[in-house]
Amino acid sequence: MAFLSDTLSRVKPSPTIAVTTKAAELKAEGRDVIGLGAGEPDFDTPQNIKDAAKAAIDAGKTKYTAVDGIPELKKAICAKFKRDNGLDYSPAQVTIGTGGKQVLYNALMATLNAGDEVVIPAPYWVSYPDMVLLAGGEPVIAEATAETAYKLTPEALEGAITPKTKWLIFNSPSNPTGAGYTWDELKALTDVLMRHPHVWVMSDDMYEHLVYDDFKFCTPAQVEPGLYERTLTVNGVSKAYAMTGWRIGYAAGPVEVIKAMGKIQSQSTSNPCSVSQWAAVEALNGPQDYIAENNKTFQRRRDLVVDMLNAAEGIVCPVPEGAFYVYPSIAGCIGKTSAGGAKIVDDEAFATALLEETGVAVVFGAAFGTSPCFRVSYATSDEALREACTRIQKFCAGLS
């Protein structure tokens, strides 16, 4: 009898965490490494949020809270959905977890039965398929190609839906591509969903506020009110408020699903960190002006990275609408050999050789379900990005 669960054979460790860990190991060995794998802002948490956390500690707000969050934070979340998205939710329709990942996982655990299918557009965040598998479901990958700017088409969505489909996981702006859906593009998808009333929508809006140029964010239940009763809208404070380590995610949706998610959480982690919840109240209710300021920095970095990568031989890098990632194609590099003698047979081989020969850590595209590509996080300094892209250019120029 095997000691470890058979369920573990259905999943793999997170490739993004693996890349970050490998880069840290090389740094510890004294190597000059530039890590472009981590998906977190390099900005500090705003001072007003830190002050709110300190005040919560001083006030003794360090005890257990309600399993799925304090009333004050639920109220702030309801106000946020109304203010930013035009969506009306009551506190009973809101759940709060230890990061957006736990919220997504709770929803899948609370709703999936063996054989249930979940449509996941590719490229996808690395954790979506594995969370579906852990919950006993079956991921169905609907590919979005470079020709459609890595956005799912209505035809691809229609083709992926079967009588067994329970959820569509939707992410805009996207991790890993940064692609954002316009109102009309999203409406075309919601029109498909309206023809399939058994399919629910899990909308991961974590990068909602990180958008550039003239792009306007929208979310499925906002675009199509007819989907309101079968949409779980997920968000959090990690990205927009530079609070990745605080671990606060939240969701709003039908009361039945919210209660079921709370039941899962009550037997797993129980409540999110009390101090982090009070900090999140301030994040959502307090000043929002620094988001626009941070976005100016992100947009400058995006433009720098896109320009420099498009100047590299064999690389084509689209301009993303949001998030802090770019997802360039390396189709022009496949089949070549690096200056260090590595055969570039796929994007994983490219990323491995790039790290070993130049010290630049990126995440290979196969981890996100679409090859041959790689993901760059530009949530780091201009200087580091410029140096990293210079090294990538030299690496590509050395391919033969």
From TrEMBL:
Q: Which residues form the Aminotransferase class I/classII large domain?
A: 32-392
Keyword NADP assigned to the entry: answer is: no
Which keywords are on file for this protein? Answer: Aminotransferase, Pyridoxal phosphate, Transferase
Q: Into which EC class is this enzyme placed? A: transferase
Looking up CDD domains in the UniProt record yields: AAT_like
Outline the subunit composition.
Answer: Homodimer.
- What family is reported? Belongs to the class-I pyridoxal-phosphate-dependent aminotransferase family.
Q: What is this protein called?
A: Aminotransferase
Give the originating organism: Roseinatronobacter bogoriensis subsp. barguzinensis
Identify the taxonomic lineage of the organism of origin.
Answer: Bacteria, Pseudomonadati, Pseudomonadota, Alphaproteobacteria, Rhodobacterales
